[in-house]
Recover the amino acids of this structure.
C-alpha cells in the first residue's frame, strides 16, 4: 500500500496542458521531490494533491482510499484531507501570534485544550520558536516566519506534508540551514514529504526519490544520484548540474569533434548514425599531462586552447576551445591546469550519448534512454 | 554690492520651491483656518469662551450638532456593512458577471449625491412623492408608507452614495490578499465560513475601517443630502445650519461667528477621525499582498447564487437606474406634479437650460472654475509635495503639518475661512466674485494634489536625481528632465482627481456664490429651493450627461496613462 498514488492525472488551463497523464506512487515516510523549471506543472500537481485544484482526468488515492477522481467527480475537500502544507510566501497569519498560528489547525479540529497546549509546545520547540511564541509574525525574519509555517503544519501530526518551494523566499545561507532542519523534522516525525522545488541542489540534498518534470510531462523518476549519473534525456542532463553538449561525428565507433583530428571517444554507439551529441559534465573532463601525449597512438586527448580561466574559490572554472566548440571545464583549484592562452590536451572521462536532433518535448520518459559509456578504458 | 550678488546667487531652485510652498500653504490654508479659530474664540480682541458656550447651548445649534453625529454614525455603519458585503460578494464568491457588477457598484461615485437626493425627494417625499403615490393607490393606504425627508431617509440616501468608498477599499484588499493565507487555513481543516470569519475578515479589517472612516469624514461635513431632504422638515446638520444662519442674516458677522464655532467643531472631529485612521492603519498594517498570484479561494454560492445576483441587481437598480431615470423624466415634465405620461412631456426644459442666463452661467462657471482650479492646484501641489518628500531643511515639520492640514478641512470650513480672509480684511475683497470660489477650490482640493503627487514622487528613487546631478545637470535641469517626466502620469491623474469633483461641487460654493457666480451644483440647489423642481431636474440631467461623458473619456485616457506608468515602475524596480 503506497501512501499516495496518482493515476494518469491530467490538468489543463484553457489550451495549456499543465500536467499530462502523470502516474506516480509515493511510499510511506518517503521524501519525494518534484523538480522542474517554473511553469513545468510541479506546483499544479501539488495543488491537485492538496485538493485546491480539481483533476481534468485521473485519480488520486491516499492509503488506497479515493481522494480525488475526475471520473466520479469525487473530491475530498482540502480541509478534510488532514495534510500539512507549507507555502512559498510563508502564509502565516499576521493578525495572530506565533502560538495562535500554530494552534489554529488544532482548534479547528476541536482538540481538547491540554492536547493543543502540548502539541503547540512540541511544534514550537522542534522548530526553535518557543521564545517567539507570543510575538506577531510581522516582526520576525523570513526564516522565522517559514519556521512558523512548518510548526503549524507539523502540529497536527500529518501523515503527508506538502511543501511548495518553501525555501525560495529565503537567502542562500538560510536556505541551506532550513534544508537540514526540514530533513531532521521528517526523520523525527516520520511523515511523508512531497516537496516542490526548482532548485536541483535542494532536491538532491533532500529527496529519497525525485521526479523531474518539464512542460507538464514527467522526464524521469528515480533516486537523486541515479538521475545525476544517468539522466534520461538532454533536458534532465542540463537541468541537473552543469553540462557540455558537444556535437560529434562518428566513424566506426570513434567520435570526433568538428575541426579536430584526435579521437574524443572510442566507444560511441554505432546506432546513433554519423552524427550525435556527446554530453559531458565540466568536472568529468581532465587535462592530459604532457608526458603522456603521444599522437601516434591517437588516444591521448583532444587538442584544446584555454580561452578563460577563473578561480571560484576552491574550484577553477575554464573555458576552452576545441575545434569549433567552446567547452566548460571545472577542476579542483589545487590541481595543475593550463593558463589562459595555453594549448593543452583534454580527455573526456565520462560521457553520455544523445541523438543529434534534440526533441523539443519528450513525450515519454522511456524515449531517449541514455547510453552510458566510459571512455577511460 | 558684492554681498548682494553673493546672496542672490544663494537663492537656488530649492529655496524658491521652499518659499513658494510655504507661502501658498500659509495664504490658502493656514490664514483661513487661523481666522476661523480667532473669530470663534475672540470677541472684540478678547478671549471669550462664554460666547462659545452660549452658542453651543442654544438648542438650535446643539440639535444640529447631534443630528450631524447621528447621521454620520448611521451612514458609516450602514454603508460599511452593505459595502463590505457587496465587496466580499464580488471578490470572493462565484457570483456571475463579476466584472460588470464591480463596475456598477462604483457608478454611484459618478452620481452627485445631491442629485440623488433630489431624485429621491421626487420619488418618496411624504405628500407628493411619485413612488409614494403609486404605493398608496396600489395598496389603498391612508398615508405615505415611506418618508424620505427624515433622519432615516438622510442616512439611507447618504449611505447609497458613500458606499463606493468602502466597496473600493475592501474589494481591493480582498483581491490583493495573498490567497495562500486562506489556503493554509483550509488545509488546516477550516471550512470556508470559518476562514471568512477568522482569517479573511480580520485581515481586511484595516481596509474596512479605512473605508468607514472616510465615509464618516465625508458624511460629517456633507451639505447636499441633508439640506435637500432635511431643511424643509427642520432637520439641520452642522453644514446646513451654518448655511442657514449666514443666509438668514444676509451674511452678518454674528452669523459668521456662530458658523466659525460650529466649523471649529467640524475641524476637531475631522482631525480626530484622521488621527484614529492613522493609528488603526499603523496598528493593522499587514503585508498580505501576494508575491506569486494564484486564483483566490472562491466560495461557491450554489443555491444562493441567483437570489444574491437578483439582490445585487435590485440594489443597483434602486441606487443608480431609478434616480437617474427619475431626474430625466422630471426634467421633461411640463409642470411638476403631472403624471409621467407622454402628453405631459417636453424637450423644452432641456433646451431652455442652454438659453437661460442663470443656468448657462452656471455651466460655464463650473467648467472654467474646475479646470483652472485643477490646473493651479495640481501644479502647486506637485511643488509642495516635492518640498515635503524630497527636500531636507530645518522646520520641515511645519511644512508637513501645513501639507496635511487640508485633509481635515471640510468644505464648509474652507468656505467660511475664505470669506473671513478675502472679504477686505487684508485689503482684497473677492466676495461675490468667481475668484473667491477659485481660491476656495484650491484650498479644498490641495489635499488631493499633495497626496497624489507625493505618491508618485516617493516612487522616484533619489538615486535617479543624484545620477543626473552627477552627470552635470543643475538642480533645475534635473527637475525638468528627470523628475517631472517621471511623475507626469501622477500629475495628470491629480488634475482629473480635482477637476471631476470640482465640476459638481456644492458644499463650498453654496456659501460663496454671488448673483452671477452660481456653479452647476448651486444652480440646481437654488432652483430646487425656489420650487423650480422641473428646471432643477433638467439642469441635473444635463450635469449628469456632462459628468458621465467626461468621466468615461478620462477613465479611458487614464487607463492608457497607467500602462505607461507601469512601465516606468518596472524600470524603477529593476533600478532598485
Amino acid at each position: 500500500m503506497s501512501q499516495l498514488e496518482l493515476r494518469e492525472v491530467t490538468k489543463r488551463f484553457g489550451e495549456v496542458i499543465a500536467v499530462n497523464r502523470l502516474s506516480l506512487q509515493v511510499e510511506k515516510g518517503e521524501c519525494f521531490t518534484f523538480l522542474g523549471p517554473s511553469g513545468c506543472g510541479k506546483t499544479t500537481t501539488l495543488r491537485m494533491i492538496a485538493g485546491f485544484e480539481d483533476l481534468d482526468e485521473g485519480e488520486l488515492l491516499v492509503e488506497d482510499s479515493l481522494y480525488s477522481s475526475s471520473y466520479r467527480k469525487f473530491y475530498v475537500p482540502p480541509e478534510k484531507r488532514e495534510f500539512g502544507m507549507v507555502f512559498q510566501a510563508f502564509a502565516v497569519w499576521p493578525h495572530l501570534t506565533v502560538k495562535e498560528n500554530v494552534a489554529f489547525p488544532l482548534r479547528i479540529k476541536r482538540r481538547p485544550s491540554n492536547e493543543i497546549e502540548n502539541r503547540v509546545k512540541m511544534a514550537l520547540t522542534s522548530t526553535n520558536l518557543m521564545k517567539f511564541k507570543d510575538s506577531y509574525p510581522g516582526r520576525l525574519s523570513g526564516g522565522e516566519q517559514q519556521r512558523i509555517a512548518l510548526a503549524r503544519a507539523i502540529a497536527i501530526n500529518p501523515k503527508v506534508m506538502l511543501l511548495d518551494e518553501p525555501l525560495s523566499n529565503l537567502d542562500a545561507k538560510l536556505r541551506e540551514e532550513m534544508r537540514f532542519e526540514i530533513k531532521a523534522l521528517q526523520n523525527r516525525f516520520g511523515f511523508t514529504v512531497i516537496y516542490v522545488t526548482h532548485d536541483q541542489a535542494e532536491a538532491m540534498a533532500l529527496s529519497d526519490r525525485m521526479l523531474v518534470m518539464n512542460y507538464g510531462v514527467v522526464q524521469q523518476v528515480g533516486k537523486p544520484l541515479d538521475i545525476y549519473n544517468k539522466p534520461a534525456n538532454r533536458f534532465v542532463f542540463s537541468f541537473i548540474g552543469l553540462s557540455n553538449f558537444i556535437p560529434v561525428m562518428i566513424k566506426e565507433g570513434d567520435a570526433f569533434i568538428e575541426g579536430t583530428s584526435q579521437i574524443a571517444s572510442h566507444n560511441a554507439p554505432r546506432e546513433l548514425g554519423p552524427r550525435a551529441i556527446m554530453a559531458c559534465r565540466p568536472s568529468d573532463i581532465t587535462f592530459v599531462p604532457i608526458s603522456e601525449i603521444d599522437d601516434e597512438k591517437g588516444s591521448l586527448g583532444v587538442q584544446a586552447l584555454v580561452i578563460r580561466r577563473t578561480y571560484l574559490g576552491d574550484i577553477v572554472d575554464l573555458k576552452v576551445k576545441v575545434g569549433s566548440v567552446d567547452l566548460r571545464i571545472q577542476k579542483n583549484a589545487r590541481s595543475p591546469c593550463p593558463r589562459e592562452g595555453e594549448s593543452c590536451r583534454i580527455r573526456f572521462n565520462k560521457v553520455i550519448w544523445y541523438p543529434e536532433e534534440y526533441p523539443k518535448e519528450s513525450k515519454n520518459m522511456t524515449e531517449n534512454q541514455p547510453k552510458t559509456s566510459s571512455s577511460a578504458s | 554690492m558684492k554681498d548682494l550678488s553673493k546672496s542672490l546667487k544663494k537663492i537656488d531652485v530649492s529655496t524658491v520651491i521652499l518659499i513658494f510652498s510655504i507661502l501658498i500653504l500659509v495664504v490658502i490654508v493656514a490664514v483661513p483656518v487661523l481666522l476661523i479659530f480667532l473669530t470663534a474664540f475672540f470677541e472684540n480682541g478678547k478671549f471669550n469662551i462664554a460666547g462659545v458656550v452660549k452658542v453651543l447651548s442654544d438648542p438650535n445649534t446643539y440639535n444640529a450638532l447631534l443630528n450631524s453625529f447621528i447621521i454620520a454614525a448611521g451612514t458609516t455603519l450602514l454603508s460599511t456593512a452593505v459595502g463590505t458585503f457587496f465587496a466580499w460578494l464580488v471578490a470572493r464568491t462565484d457570483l456571475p458577471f463579476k466584472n460588470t457588477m464591480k463596475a456598477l457598484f462604483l457608478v454611484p461615485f459618478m452620481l452627485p449625491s445631491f442629485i440623488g437626493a433630489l431624485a429621491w425627494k421626487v420619488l418618496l417625499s411624504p405628500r407628493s412623492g411619485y413612488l409614494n403615490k403609486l404605493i398608496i393607490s396600489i395598496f389603498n393606504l391612508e398615508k405615505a408608507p415611506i418618508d424620505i425627508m427624515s433622519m432615516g431617509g438622510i442616512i439611507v440616501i447618504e449611505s447609497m452614495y458613500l458606499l463606493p468608498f468602502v466597496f473600493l477599499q475592501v474589494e481591493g484588499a480582498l483581491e490583493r490578499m495573498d490567497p495562500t493565507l486562506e489556503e493554509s487555513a483550509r488545509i488546516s481543516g477550516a471550512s470556508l465560513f470559518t476562514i471568512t470569519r477568522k482569517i479573511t475578515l480580520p485581515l481586511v479589517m484595516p481596509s474596512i475601517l479605512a473605508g468607514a472612516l472616510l465615509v464618516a469624514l465625508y458624511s460629517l461635513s456633507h451639505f447636499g443630502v441633508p439640506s435637500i431632504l432635511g431643511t424643509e422638515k427642520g432637520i439641520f446638520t452642522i453644514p446646513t445650519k451654518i448655511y442657514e444662519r449666514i443666509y438668514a442674516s444676509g451674511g452678518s458677522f454674528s452669523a459668521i461667528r456662530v458658523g466659525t464655532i460650529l466649523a471649529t467643531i467640524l475641524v476637531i472631529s475631522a482631525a480626530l477621525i484622521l488621527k484614529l485612521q492613522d493609528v488603526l492603519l499603523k496598528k493593522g498594517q499587514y503585508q498580505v499582498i501576494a508575491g506569486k498570484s494564484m486564483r483566490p479561494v472562491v466560495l461557491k454560492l450554489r443555491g444562493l447564487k441567483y437570489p444574491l445576483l437578483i439582490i445585487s441587481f435590485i440594489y443597483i437598480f434602486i441606487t443608480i437606474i431609478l434616480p437617474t431615470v427619475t431626474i430625466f423624466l422630471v426634467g421633461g415634465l411640463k409642470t411638476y406634479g403631472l403624471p409621467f405620461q407622454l402628453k405631459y412631456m417636453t424637450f423644452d426644459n432641456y433646451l431652455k437650460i442652454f438659453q437661460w442666463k442663470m443656468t448657462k452661467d452656471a455651466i460655464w462657471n463650473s467648467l472654467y472654475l474646475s479646470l483652472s482650479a485643477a490646473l493651479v492646484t495640481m501644479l502647486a501641489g506637485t511643488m509642495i509635495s516635492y518640498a515635503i518628500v524630497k527636500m531636507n531643511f530645518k522646520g520641515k515639520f511645519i511644512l508637513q503639518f501645513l501639507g496635511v492640514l487640508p485633509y481635515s478641512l471640510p468644505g464648509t470650513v474652507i468656505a467660511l475661512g475664505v470669506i473671513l480672509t478675502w472679504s477686505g480684511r487684508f485689503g482684497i475683497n473677492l466676495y461675490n466674485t468667481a475668484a473667491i470660489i477659485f481660491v476656495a477650490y484650491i484650498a479644498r482640493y490641495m489635499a488631493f494634489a499633495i497626496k497624489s503627487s507625493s505618491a508618485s514622487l516617493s516612487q522616484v528613487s533619489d538615486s535617479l536625481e543624484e545620477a543626473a546631478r552627477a552627470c552635470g545637470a543643475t538642480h533645475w535641469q534635473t527637475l525638468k528632465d528627470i523628475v517631472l517626466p517621471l511623475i507626469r502620469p501622477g500629475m495628470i491623474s491629480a488634475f482629473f482627481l480635482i477637476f471631476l469633483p470640482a465640476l459638481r461641487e456644492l458644499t463650498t460654493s453654496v456659501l460663496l456664490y454671488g448673483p452671477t457666480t452660481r456653479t452647476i451644483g448651486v444652480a440646481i440647489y437654488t432652483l430646487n429651493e425656489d420650487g423650480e423642481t422641473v428646471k432643477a431636474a433638467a439642469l441635473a440631467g444635463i450635469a449628469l450627461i456632462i459628468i458621465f461623458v467626461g468621466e468615461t473619456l478620462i477613465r479611458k485616457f487614464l487607463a492608457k496613462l497607467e500602462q505607461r506608468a507601469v512601465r516606468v515602475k518596472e524600470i524603477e524596480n529593476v533600478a532598485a
About this structure: The first strand of chain A starts at residue 4 and ends at 13. The interface with chain B takes residues 47, 50-52, 77-85, 87-89, 91-95, 104-105, 108-109, 138, 149, 152, 156, 162, 169 of chain A (CB under 8 Å). Chain A has two domains: 4-229, 242-355+362-374.
